[in-house]
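Proteins fold reproducibly. Consider a sample protein:
=====
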Amino acid sequence: MSASKGSNKVAKTVERKRLRNRLVRRSVKTYIVKAKSSADAGEESAYQKTMLAISGIDKAVSKRVIHRNKGARLKSQLMKNLNKKQRAIS
């Protein structure tokens, strides 16, 4: 621990934010994996899972946990994967 009280408080705050950000990033990754796997399997719920993942990505971007360009890239990849799989089924 640091010598000053102020730096100790900052360290505690940074640790709380790090844990919160890690939780948000992990949940976004989980949403993405579920959306991709359901699209690959050709499930009926693939669209809903993709929309849930996109919503999670948007929330993470609004909280500034992930960068907005990364969020846009992830959403684009999800929709591209979903559309490709749905075209293959049709």
